[in-house]
C-alpha cells in the first residue's frame, strides 16, 4: 500500500518504520528534518509537504501532538483534504478532542475522503514493538479497510463506534490511568509515613483487588523515585484537558477526574512537565510537607 505518514515523533517514527518493514511504501512528512532523516534511514521516503506526502497515497496516517496540529494538517491549504485523492483513507492516531475527530470526519466526507479516529495506548515501547492498543471510531467498512495497516501497529484493535468514539474511549483511558497513578502515589505516602515498607505493602496490593497494570509496571520505580519518561506529565495534562472538554460536551460531571486533572496541572506548575506521569507522587509528597 502507499501510505502517507505525517508526524514522525516518539510514536509516529517507530510506527512508520514498522509499516516500511511490513512492505508498505511509506512517504513521511514532519516539520522536523531530523525526524524525516530517521524515516529515510528506516527505508521510507521523505516529502517536503503534507501535499506531497498524500498525493499518491491510498492511506494517510497522522500522529501529531494535539488538535491544532491535526487541524492544520487536515484543513490547511497545504493539507490532506485539499490534496488527498477521493477514496483516501485517513487514520488519525493522535490523541485529540472527540469533537475534532467528528469535524475532520464530516469535512473529509464532503471531499470523498474516509476518516477514522484511532488513538492508541501502549506508549513508545508499544509503538516500537507494534503492540499498541488501538481504539477506532468511524464507519465499520472503513475500519475493515484499515485493519491490514492497523495490525502492523498494534495487537488489540477494536472498533468502538462512530466518528469521535475512539477519542472518547482514549479520554476514558487517560482519566483511569491518571486516577490510578494518583491513588498509588497516596498509598506510597501513607505507607511510608506510617513506617510500613512500601515495597512489601504494594506487592500485596498488586496481587489483590487493588492490582493494576500501573502497580505491576511502575510501583518499583515510583518507590525509588525514578521518573524518566515514559509518558510525560505535559502530554497527560493535555489529555486531561481533552477529558474535561469531552465531559462538558457530553453534559456529565466527573468529580474525581477534576481532582486528578488539577493534580496533574500542579505537577506541571511545579516544573515536572517533562517527567513521567508517575511523578504525580512528587505532588502528593509536596502537599504533605
Ligand atoms: P511527539 O511530539 O514526539 O511527535 C509529534 C511529531 O509531530 C513531532 O515529530 C513534530 O515535529 C511533528 N509535528 C508537529 N506539528 C506538525 C505539523 N504541523 N506537520 C507535521 N509534523 C508536525 O509526540 P508523540 O509522543 O509521538 O505523540 C503523538 C500523539 O500520540 C500525541 O497526541 C500523544 O498524546 C499520543 N500518544 C503518545 C504516547 C506516548 O507515550 N508518547 C502514547 C499514546 C498516545
Automatic annotation (TrEMBL):
Superkingdom of this protein's organism: Bacteria
Xref: PROSITE patterns: 3_HYDROXYISOBUT_DH
Species assigned in the record: Planomonospora venezuelensis
Residues forming the catalytic site: 170
Family: Belongs to the HIBADH-related family.
Coiled-coil region list: none
Pfam families in alphabetical order: NAD_binding_11, NAD_binding_2
Keyword line: NAD, Oxidoreductase
Full protein name: 2-hydroxy-3-oxopropionate reductase
GO molecular function, one term: NAD binding
EC assignment: 1.1.1.60
GO biological process: glyoxylate metabolic process; organic acid catabolic process
Domain 6-phosphogluconate dehydrogenase NADP-binding: 2-161
Span of domain 3-hydroxyisobutyrate dehydrogenase-like NAD-binding: 164-283
Amino acid at each position: 500500500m502507499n501510505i502517507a505518514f505525517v508526524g514522525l515523533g516518539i510514536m509516529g517514527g517507530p510506527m512508520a518504520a514498522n509499516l516500511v518493514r511490513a512492505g508498505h511504501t511509506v512517504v513521511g512528512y514532519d516539520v522536523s528534518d531530523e525526524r524525516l532523516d530517521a524515516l529515510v534511514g528506516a527505508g521510507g521516503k521523505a516529502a517536503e509537504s503534507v501535499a506531497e506526502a498524500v498525493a499518491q497515497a491510498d492511506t494517510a496516517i497522522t500522529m501529531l501532538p494535539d488538535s491544532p496540529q491535526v487541524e492544520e494538517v487536515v484543513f490547511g491549504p497545504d493539507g490532506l483534504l485539499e490534496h488527498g485523492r477521493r477514496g483516501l483513507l485517513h487514520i488519525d492516531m493522535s490523541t485529540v478532542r472527540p469533537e475534532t475527530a467528528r469535524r475532520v470526519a464530516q469535512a473529509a466526507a464532503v471531499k470523498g475522503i474516509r476518516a477514522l479516529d484511532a488513538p492508541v495506548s501502549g506508549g513508545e515501547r508499544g509503538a516500537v514493538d507494534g503492540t499498541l492498543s488501538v481504539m477506532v471510531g468511524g464507519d465499520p467498512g472503513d475500519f475493515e479497510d484499515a485493519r491490514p495497516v492497523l495490525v502492523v501497529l498494534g495487537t488489540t484493535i477494536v472498533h468502538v463506534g462512530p466518528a469521535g468514539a475512539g477519542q472518547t474511549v482514549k479520554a476514558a483511558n487517560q482519566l483511569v490511568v491518571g486516577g490510578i497513578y494518583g491513588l498509588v502515589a497516596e498509598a506510597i505516602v501513607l505507607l511510608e509515613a506510617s513506617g510500613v515498607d512500601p515495597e512489601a505493602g504494594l506487592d500485596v496490593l498488586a496481587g489483590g483487588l487493588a492490582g493494576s497494570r500501573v502497580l505491576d509496571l511502575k510501583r518499583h520505580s515510583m518507590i525509588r523515585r525514578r521518573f524518566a519518561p515514559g509518558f510525560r506529565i505535559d502530554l497527560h495534562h493535555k489529555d486531561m484537558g481533552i477529558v474535561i472538554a469531552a465531559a462538558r460536551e457530553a453534559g456529565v460531571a466527573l468529580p474525581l477526574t477534576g481532582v486528578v486533572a488539577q493534580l496533574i496541572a500542579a505537577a506541571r506548575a511545579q516544573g515536572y512537565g517533562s517527567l513521567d506521569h508517575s511523578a504525580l507522587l512528587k505532588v502528593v509528597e509536596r502537599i504533605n510537607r
